[in-house]
């Protein structure tokens, strides 16, 4: 019964700009990783064959590098409100954010847990964002000297290799966690469809991002799920 | 295990004839690289992918106020601890039993990491075109004529050197000769020194220099870049471990979830719906 | 050299033999060789050793053959019996005969000796020749500076046909005798057999991929000489070893119709 209801009532969570930005970012990121893997470890040398030689892998890596830089600007230009809200959230840390983690570990491994009230982004997503921003800066910043070594002093180019490598390892770990929690973990799936369609089930949103949901209810944007009348009306 | 050899270059015996450059081109089948006049006797500014050794000419005012015209055969140093070998992501660069550092073109992907990390700037990428017109790159540099060493022959540059400014032989013997030579020329060249930099673990091309290395445009204290050490000895292995660790944790989480899912089927009504 | 067609084992055996010979030579009193430097004979091409009075120590000669046999057996145990058999046939008288016949490279004698006694053909001359060489090498040491080579006569010291030259210094060609280690200079473009120095009738055969050697071939007498630029070598082997490791050049030259000792019987050890 509850399942039916939650899939019926959808609320808008992400703007079009965010959905596009996130999508491009994701595809570029994965592509960049795959084209970089044979350089990172010999296990993946067969990927050179897939790409038609190291030259092609290098070319694809550079095209995707540009694609990787774009999303920030897409989001900033077409949804600056959402972008700045994100930035603001990233620097806002309260008690509930820290409580989140102890419950998160339980949820991750499938133990019983209770939801800690979260705003638009939960503490885990904030950590993910911060780490990804950090990795992106590392990777993009070091990528330029590697791409155009003639324009930079050689010491900077040499350090770039190191930083790019650090970014690769860190970025991989972070993204692996991010993808797992969104795509594979059973409680997060609505989040994954949400980032593609922009919409998520109201019930899921309310339980996962209670504070944000209630604020939107107050503004009159979202249905109040606790009001049985209203709930029925919307659902019907 | 072959003997470890060293090429000893005594620049004080060099007369700048450049036969070594010709012998190198000849033996290694390297195309000519025509250059504009550079304003000096020196033909090329630096070694390149097609010119593995260049004779450098330096005009230097010595401590007595006289002018010295300094010649030097410059090519790959064949470091004992070679930065190019360290940073190569494809293990395309390796040490031979003779001590020379060589590139395997079958493995080289033309990334240029070696070029950017060489403390001596003696390895470079060359552009090739395959028969379909597709361009690709490979790193190139002096091989110490490893193909000759395998035949029991000395490097081409050494055999052609008519004033005997270059010698090739067992490492210890060459080092002794270098020391003896430095003591012989100290009077005329007070700054005379052996160039066998410790920062790269020593080299297999060792110089007897009349002046300080910097006078010849050589780095005084070359070393494997710290960034390369952190990158290859720390970041890379830690990164691999981290990637592996996160993967294992998530696999663990996935399995645990499946496990608790089965166990907790009957509690679904009170717990499950809250976060579905 | 990696390229040699001769197996590493055989090269090593020869190197060990060369080492032994060097020791034996050093153990000899230089006075046992009294060269007779007859200018007329020398100009006529008679090898110095042929006229020299050499005081052979027969028991020492036999002892060397024992040492040599031991060295061979160390590497080839299966030869122990055969070599022991040969040794049992040797007395003072045969030893003297062996020295004489080895000196004159009389392979016919040794072949017959082997046949008569039912032993492998290679063994008698191999032992005799190698035990004789220290005396020849000592002679070469003594007369190196005065012996004069005559074209067509081979080595001025021991009479071995010329077939091996090395380049030295600025490119000087020096003929080396692989048998007694005597050496003498020769014009770069000149046949060591007939003395022909007409560049139009002198050819060089080179083997692709071999940067340091060529074979000088004379169209007039059909003789050849291996010319090896050992200046390019990291370490220089002795003439005997160099002659051995470059044996493929002999094959190449002979297959092309040239001979090491043109006009003579094939005489080789």
TrEMBL record, chain A:
The Gene Ontology biological process annotation of the record reads: anaerobic respiration; formate oxidation; respiratory electron transport chain
Major localisation: membrane
Membrane topology per the entry is: Multi-pass membrane protein
SUPFAM superfamilies on file = Transmembrane di-heme cytochromes
Entry keyword annotation includes Lipid biosynthesis: no
State the superkingdom.
Bacteria
Q: Where is the Cytochrome b561 bacterial/Ni-hydrogenase domain?
A: 13-188
Which Gene3D superfamilies does this one have?
Transmembrane di-heme cytochromes, Chain C
**Keyword terms, alphabetized:** Cell membrane, Membrane, Transmembrane, Transmembrane helix
Q: Which Pfam families match?
A: Ni_hydr_CYTB
Any one Gene Ontology molecular-function term assigned to this protein's record: formate dehydrogenase (quinone) activity
Q: Where in the cell is it found?
A: Cell membrane
* Name of the protein in its database record: Formate dehydrogenase
Record-annotated membrane-spanning stretches: 20-39, 59-78, 127-147, 159-181
Automatic annotation (TrEMBL), chain B:
InterPro entries xrefs: 4Fe4S_Fe-S-bd, 4Fe4S_Fe_S_CS, FDH_Electron_Transfer_Unit, Formate_DH_Fe-S_su
A GO cellular component entry from the record:
cell envelope
UniProt binding sites for [4Fe-4S] cluster 1: 14, 17, 20, 161
Query: What's the main place this protein lives?
Result: other
Details of cofactor binding: Binds 4 [4Fe-4S] clusters per subunit.
Q: Name one GO molecular function term.
A: metal ion binding
From its record, what is one biological process in GO terms?
cellular respiration
Annotated binding of [4Fe-4S] cluster 2, by residue: 24, 142, 145, 157
All copies of domain 4Fe-4S ferredoxin-type, residue ranges: 5-35, 67-98, 99-128
SUPFAM superfamilies xrefs: 4Fe-4S ferredoxins
Q: Give one Pfam hit by family name.
A: Fer4_11
Binding-site list for [4Fe-4S] cluster 3: 76, 79, 84, 118
Which UniProt key words apply to this protein? Answer: 4Fe-4S, Iron, Iron-sulfur, Metal-binding, Repeat
- UniProt keyword Repeat, yes or no: yes
What's the cofactor? [4Fe-4S] cluster
Any keyword Translocase?
no
User: Where is [4Fe-4S] cluster 4 bound in this sequence?
Assistant: 88, 108, 111, 114
- Subcellular location as annotated: Cell envelope
Recorded protein name is 4Fe-4S ferredoxin
Its lineage reads: Bacteria, Bacillati, Bacillota, Bacilli, Bacillales
Automatic annotation (TrEMBL), chain C:
Question: Record's superkingdom?
Answer: Bacteria
Q: PANTHER family attached here?
A: PROTEIN FDHE
GO MF term (any one)? ferric iron binding
Descriptive protein name: Formate dehydrogenase
Chain ranges of the FdhE C-terminal domain = 189-264
**What keywords were assigned to this record?**
Cytoplasm
Q: Which organism does this record belong to? A: Mesobacillus campisalis
Q: Does the keyword Cytoplasm apply?
A: yes
A family per Pfam: FdhE_C
Biological processes, Gene Ontology terms:
protein maturation
**Has the keyword rRNA-binding been applied to this entry?**
no
CC per GO annotation = cytosol
């Amino acid at each position: 019964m509850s399942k039916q209801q939650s899939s019926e009532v959808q609320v808008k969570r992400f703007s079009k700009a965010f959905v596009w930005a996130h999508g491009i970012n994701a595809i570029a990121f994965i592509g960049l990783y795959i084209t970089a893997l044979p350089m990172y470890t010999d296990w993946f040398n067969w990927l050179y064959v897939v790409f038609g030689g190291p030259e092609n892998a290098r070319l694809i890596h550079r095209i995707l590098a540009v694609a990787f830089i774009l999303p920030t600007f897409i989001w900033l230009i077409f949804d600056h409100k959402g972008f700045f809200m994100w930035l603001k959230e990233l620097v806002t840390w309260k008690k509930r954010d820290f409580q989140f983690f102890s419950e998160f570990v339980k949820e991750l491994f499938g133990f019983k847990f209770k939801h800690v009230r979260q705003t638009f982004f939960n503490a885990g997503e904030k950590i993910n964002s911060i780490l990804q921003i950090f990795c992106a800066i590392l990777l993009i910043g070091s990528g330029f000297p590697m791409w155009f070594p003639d324009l930079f002093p050689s010491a900077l180019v040499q350090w770039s290799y190191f930083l790019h490598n650090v970014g690769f390892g860190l970025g991989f770990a972070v993204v692996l966690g991010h993808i797992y929690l969104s795509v594979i973990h059973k409680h997060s799936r609505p989040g994954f469809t949400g980032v593609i369609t922009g919409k998520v089930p109201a019930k899921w949103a309310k339980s996962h991002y209670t504070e944000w949901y209630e604020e939107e209810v107050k503004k009159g944007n979202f249905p109040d799920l606790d009001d049985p009348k209203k709930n029925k009306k919307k659902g019907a | 295990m072959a003997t470890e050899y060293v090429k000893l270059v005594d620049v004080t015996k060099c007369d700048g004839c450049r036969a070594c450059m010709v012998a190198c081109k000849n033996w290694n089948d390297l195309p000519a690289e025509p250059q504009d006049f550079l304003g000096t006797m020196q033909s090329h500014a630096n070694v390149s992918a097609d010119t593995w050794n260049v004779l450098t000419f330096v005009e230097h005012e010595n401590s007595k106020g006289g002018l010295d015209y300094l010649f030097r055969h410059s090519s790959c140093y064949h470091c004992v601890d070679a930065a190019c070998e360290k940073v190569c992501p494809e293990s395309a660069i390796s040490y031979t039993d003779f001590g020379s550092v060589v590139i395997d073109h079958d493995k080289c992907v033309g990334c240029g990491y070696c070029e950017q990390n060489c403390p001596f700037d003696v390895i470079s990428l060359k552009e090739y075109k395959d028969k379909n017109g597709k361009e690709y790159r490979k790193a190139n540099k002096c091989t110490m004529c490893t193909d000759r060493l395998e035949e029991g022959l000395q490097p081409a540059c050494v055999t052609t050197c008519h004033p005997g400014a270059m010698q090739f032989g067992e490492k210890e013997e060459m080092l002794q000769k270098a020391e003896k030579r430095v003591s012989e020329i100290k009077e005329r060249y007070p700054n005379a020194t052996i160039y066998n930099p410790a920062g790269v673990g020593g080299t297999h091309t060792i110089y007897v220099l009349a002046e300080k290395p910097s006078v010849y445009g050589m780095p005084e204290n070359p070393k494997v870049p710290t960034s390369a050490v952190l990158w290859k000895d720390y970041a890379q292995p830690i990164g691999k471990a981290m990637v592996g660790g996160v993967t294992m944790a998530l696999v663990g989480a996935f399995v645990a979830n499946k496990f608790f899912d089965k166990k907790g089927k009957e509690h679904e009504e009170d717990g499950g719906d809250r976060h579905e | 050299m990696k390229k040699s067609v001769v197996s590493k084992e055989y090269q090593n055996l020869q190197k060990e033999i060369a080492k032994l010979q060097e020791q034996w030579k050093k153990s000899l009193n230089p006075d046992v060789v009294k060269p007779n430097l007859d200018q007329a004979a020398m100009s006529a091409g008679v090898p110095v050793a042929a006229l020299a009075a050499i005081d052979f120590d027969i028991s020492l000669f036999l002892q060397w053959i024992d040492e040599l046999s031991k060295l061979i057996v160390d590497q080839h145990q299966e030869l122990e019996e055969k070599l022991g058999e040969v040794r049992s046939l040797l007395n003072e008288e045969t030893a003297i005969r062996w020295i004489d016949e080895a000196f004159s490279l009389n392979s016919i004698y040794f072949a017959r000796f082997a046949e008569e006694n039912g032993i492998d053909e290679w063994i008698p001359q191999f032992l005799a020749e190698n035990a004789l060489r220290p005396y020849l090498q000592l002679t070469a040491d003594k007369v190196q500076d005065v012996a004069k080579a005559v074209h067509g006569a081979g080595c001025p010291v021991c009479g071995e046909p010329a077939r091996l030259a090395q380049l030295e210094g600025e490119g000087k060609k020096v003929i080396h005798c692989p048998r007694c280690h005597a050496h003498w200079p020769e014009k770069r473009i000149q046949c060591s057999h007939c003395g022909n120095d007409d560049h139009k009738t002198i050819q060089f055969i080179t083997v692709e991929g071999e940067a340091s050697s060529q074979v000088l071939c004379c169209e007039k007498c059909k003789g050849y000489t291996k010319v090896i630029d050992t200046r390019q070598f990291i370490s220089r082997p002795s003439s005997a070893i160099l002659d051995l490791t470059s044996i493929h050049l002999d094959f190449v030259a002979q297959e092309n119709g040239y001979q090491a000792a043109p006009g003579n019987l094939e005489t080789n050890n």
